[in-house]
Structure formats: C-alpha cells, structure tokens
Design goal:
Layout (H helix, E strand, L loop, with lengths): L2 H23 L25 E6 L9 E7 L7 E4 L3 E8 L1 E6 L2 E6 L3 E4 L5 E5 L4 E8 L4 H9 L7 H10 L2 E5 L6
Length: about 180
C-alpha cells in the first residue's frame, strides 16, 4: 500500500468511529406531520386567521432550527423587524409575496426562496388572495415560544406588549408592516 493511501485510510479510520459515536448519541426518532396538521398539534395562527403551523420543533432538531408552514388567507405580514440571533429562510409554495430586506424589495412567486440573515431588518406581505410559505428559523431559539405567547394573549396586544415580547425573544420591531398600494 502506498504511503499516501495509508495516511488517508488511517485518517478515515480515526474519523469514522467518532461519527458512529455521534449517531449512537442520537435519541430522536423520525416522525411524520400530515397535511394541515401541526407538530404535537401546536397550531400558532398568525393574527388569529392565517395558519402558521409548526412542522419541526426546535426540540426535535436539538435547537438547530424550527420549521413552519404558513397559509395566508388575508393579505398581511409582520412588522418590519430584526432577529438578533436567528436567520430565516422562506420558500414560496403558492401565491405571490413582497419581501423587504433592509432597503431592498423583492417580489417572490411560487418556487422562489429568500434567505434573511440575522441582524438585517426584514418583513413581507402576501400580495395574492391566497398564499403558502414554508419557512425555517435557525437556530430555533425561542421563536416557537414567541408565537405561543402571542397566540395566548386574550386581547389584541398594545405596542408596548409586542415590543416587550420581541425583546424577550431576541427580536426588535423597527417599523410598520408593508402595505399594498
């Protein structure tokens, strides 16, 4: 055996047991979340009307990410905001959306995606009558808990309550939502 191949094989032999050991530590089992269902029945409607279903919890991914399905039935979107510790990736399944990232605007249609890095303010609005997005937040942080707290409010929240919730979950509102003209 040539020395070069011996070194490569020795290096692989040293790595492989560690990789196997990592898999041995994995205690999470796979799962299926059916259409129109949410992980652990955790429905987190946006503004009380739009479906915002958790599909993969941060608890499932050891905090690496949370995955949501958003089905919009009204033309709305979140305030212009910034995440201090999380990136977001949106994939448009159905409909049309306008995204704002910093000072730039992007029109997205079915099949398009956008990556919104942490520390850059962003927002979006649904332009079509119906819309559907899959989006991922990474790392998961306390994003699920933020939605749970908003959903559990008994009355529409004041600006002070929303600002406090954003701060608690490492976010900040920096402007109003987008409006369609």
């Amino acid at each position: 055996m040539e020395r070069r191949n011996f070194i490569r094989l020795s290096a692989m032999a040293a790595i492989v047991p560690n990789v196997k050991m990592d898999f041995d530590l994995q205690d999470q089992e796979g799962f299926v979340v059916r259409k129109r269902k949410a992980r652990n029945d955790k429905h987190l409607p946006f503004r009380g009307i739009n479906i915002n279903d958790l599909k993969v919890s941060g608890k499932d991914s050891q905090g690496n990410f949370a995955l949501f399905e958003y089905i919009g039935v009204e033309k709305t979107g979140p305030s212009f905001h910034v995440h201090f510790n999380q990136d977001e990736h949106f994939f448009v399944i159905e409909g049309e959306y306008k995204f704002r990232m910093g000072d730039e605007y992007f029109d997205l249609k079915a099949g398009d995606s956008i990556f919104l890095p942490r520390n850059i303010p962003h927002t979006w609005i649904q332009k079509s009558k119906k819309g559907r997005l899959i989006y991922m937040v990474s790392p998961a942080g306390s994003f699920e808990e933020f939605f749970e707290e908003v959903v559990n409010l008994k009355t529409p929240p004041s600006k002070e309550i929303i600002d406090a919730l954003h701060t608690k979950h490492q976010m900040k509102t920096v402007g109003p939502p987008l409006q369609l003209k």
